[in-house]
Amino acid sequence: MDRQYDFAALEALLKKRSFKALREALLELNEVDIAEFLGLLNGEEAVLAFRTLPKGVAADVFAELEPETQQLIVAAATDAELAVIVEDLYVDDAVDMLEDMPANVVKRILKNATPEMRGLINQFLKYPEHSAGSIMTAEFTDLRPTMTVEQAIEHIRRTGEDRETVYTCYVVGPRRRLLGVVTVRSLLLARDSQLVSDVMEDGVISVATGTDQEEAVRLLQRYGFLSLPVVDAEGRLVGIVTVDDAVDVMEQEATEDFEKMAAMAPSEKPYLKTGVFSLARHRIVWLLVLMISGMITGGILGRYEAAIAAMPLLVTFIPMLTDTGGNAGSQSSTLVIRGLAVNEITLRDFPRVLWKELRVSLLVGVVLSAVNFVRLILTYPGSEMVALTVALTMLCTVIVAKTIGGVLPLIAKACRMDPAIMASPLITTIVDAVSLVIYFAVAHRLLPL
Question: Per the UniProt record, which residue ranges are transmembrane (predicted)?
Fold first, then answer.
């Protein structure tokens, strides 16, 4: 059955106020799909449908809702209902929710949270934005090294329901210092009488609370972990970053990079939920920068006005040269930015990247120049020097463009800037100016201007 048809049927049940049937139908769906359905409803209907959900399911669905729908439900909920929702949320989900809420709503939510939950939320909100501490969860399974395997399994059974994950358990010593890690599989395969200290793996890979969230995600990806421990300055275990946190970060960072590569300021809201003025504000700054820098191209053309007047044919090849140069530079910058993003390329690889791009550009430039030379000879008989001028310019432009495109993201990284800003629009603007200078310099040498 089509999912949209299901949503229509659910909406029909809601309009008929068949709450029992609606509840049963909703419970057959995944929490994410329920959240999507609620997001399609207006405020009053979303609140009514949400209130039909059982306590445990309601908290899971609430964590998946868009901030706007969360605010509607919080505004309509009683203090008792709000306390139940907040208490059942994982801490990282609660923190994510509060970061998108107005101050008055945050105040009310914290007021209805238990003292323990309130303390955890306040602690998480103090961590720097985009740090491992800001995305970690405090609901993890910890064991003592002196426990037997039997005691450890019993502990997991007793506390696992409230933990975000039980597949990986962390062994802590006095003052909650991280000592080791042990998987449920290792515990199940060990003898009941063995100590956890005999089964665990020491030398745990961890991150500090202030570590950049991208670095935490890279470690999860590199080692294939399901979760990554987060420790404070004294080596005490304070939380874990899980795979679902990593997926959220990857989506967020990828979106941010795409927007920067398209010369836009990053936006945290989805496109359809972002206002027109907000979209314009995010775009106008970079467009102004590129427009002003594009004036350089006009200045170069004005400087060579006499050469253009003497041989108007030269103008017809400018779009081809500048477009090819911009495309060549964008290819190189895209590959290098991607390599930096997935940690395949580091600043130490600068000489290797430069040497590789020089060789690639030489091969590509020779082919493009040869094709252009032959085409121009056939198209404009007797204009061999013009064809040679365009071909040489094409060769030089491709070499310069690919070198610039490969090197600029690394320079940005060295200057602690986001390499994504050195993408297509900026590269194209720079290469346009450089290609025009090369073009007219070669033309002055080879042609009677």
Answer: 284-304, 360-380, 386-408, 420-442
